[in-house]
């Protein structure tokens, strides 16, 4: 309980009349690698977007690193978070987007150094040195001067990973990082994510349809269905012997 | 004689050649009014665009109202207003300045829409990526949104540059000696309007063609994905 770095406490999220998250309880331990699977529209992306502060909540409390994310404790009561609080909390998290969301007008190098320089206040030289290390890590050491449109999708996504890592987050969120890729480019991105997963400090939350990969790298897999966690467990438990009928149906449909 | 140049009425060709330098003086005024008016339109338009997209309704609404008002009243009315009303409140500007300002204000309503459309065309994904990286709102605007909006904005702005140029003759009603006004004065004095007015038409054609070509060149050399600052 106390070592949870992420905790959703009866979180409600609505879009108009549609309740996307319905009193969701959810926990992730520090350093844990959790995969989120589930049918389209079940609220998987919403969970990540709430954590990345791209989407607010309508009820409940989200805790990150022991502090409420969307609230601030002032004079003994929980009040909606100020932008300053959100900025501070946001620095703990990083996100890798399905469509990469790289900045098309900047070189790969500038994509990675922009935020460290502007937000963390790093010197340009230092930021570039670190960017080079990160590019090396994702296998793109020789692509620093290129623009995103000159790279393949797989390369772009690896830049996206390097860009997120450059902000030194302790939690990294992946929203279907390989769904927009041609099948032959999926492997190179998964290899990079797999390598990151071996690092024990980093907490990872991965929404994916790559079941084999989820099984390999996750400590725990959560099956989302209609804004609730229908079933969760170790990859072996969930994939070989799911107890819920819905999970079985979903896995059967996706594995065929 | 005008501006120290004599004209030669022996035949139309000589007449045309002799008044060309005079018209070029007027053309220089036209160019200056265009450039100054365009500059005002670009700056004021950006200012209006930012206000219009402000999250607070108390800022966005008045800005929208002002834009609508500017757009729905004739340039001539605004020009007369600045020229005759402002001095009553102690603000006396030279006719040229007043004219360029009126052009700039009128066109700021249009340029603000160009900016707004350009800014909105930069996708939500870009703003979200910036937010996830904790970039401030100001940094996101200046380093992510504006550089990507510029290539989308340039062609439309180029059209307004040409429009402003063609609206400069309106300034003649407040005594600005731009090209058309000069041609009219020559006509008044020589009773030959055909030659000076035809020349004005030709010179305008040259100016607008050059301006359009310039914009097109700029457009082809601007990277489509955007231009980072620094
Ligand atoms: N901004 C929004 N406005 C309205 N409805 C939204 C918005 N964002 C998401 N939704 C709806 O919320 C529901 C959950 O969306 P979410 O993106 O979390 O699903 P998901 O599990 O990630 O699905 P997928 O596998 O298709 O990505 C969907 O029905 C979606 O249509
Ligand atoms: Mg999704």
What distinguishing features does this structure have?
heterodimer, A: 256 residues, alpha/beta, Rossmann fold, 4-stranded antiparallel sheet, 9 helices, 28% strand, B: 230 residues, mainly alpha, MetI-like fold, binds adenosine-5'-triphosphate, ATP-binding (chain A), plasmid (chain A)
How would you describe the overall organization of this protein?
Chain A: Pfam families: ABC_tran. Chain A: It is a peripheral membrane protein. Chain A: Its main location: membrane. Chain A: One of its GO terms (molecular function) is ATP binding. Chain A: One of its GO terms (cellular component) is plasma membrane. The complex is a heterodimer of chains A (256) and B (230). In chain A, strand 9, helix 6 and strand 10 form a beta-alpha-beta unit. With 256 residues, chain A is an alpha/beta fold. In chain A, the strands form three sheets. A six-stranded mixed β-sheet of chain A has the order 8-9-10-3-11-12, with helices on both faces. A four-stranded antiparallel β-sheet of chain A has the order 2-1-4-5, with helices on one face. A two-stranded antiparallel ribbon of chain A has the order 6-7. The relative contact order of chain A is 0.17. Chain A has a single domain (31-56, 90-255), classed as P-loop containing nucleotide triphosphate hydrolases (Rossmann fold). Chain A has helices spanning 44-51, 83-90, 108-118, 124-137, 153-165, 183-197, 211-217, 235-240, 245-255, and strands spanning 4-15, 18-29, 33-37, 59-64, 67-68, 71-74, 77-80, 93-96, 171-175, 203-207, 220-225, 228-233. Chain B is mainly alpha-helical and 230 residues long. Chain B has a single domain (12-221), classed as MetI-like (MetI-like fold), CATH 1.10.3720.10. Helices cover 76% and strands 0% of the residues of chain B. Chain B is built from eight helices and no strands. Chain B has helices at 12-52, 57-71, 75-85, 95-121, 124-132, 137-167, 179-190, 194-221. In chain B, helix 1 packs across helix 8 (194-221) and helix 2 (57-71) crosses helix 4 (95-121). Chain B is elongated and about 75 Å long. At the A-B interface, strand 8 and helix 3 of A face helix 5 and helix 6 of B.
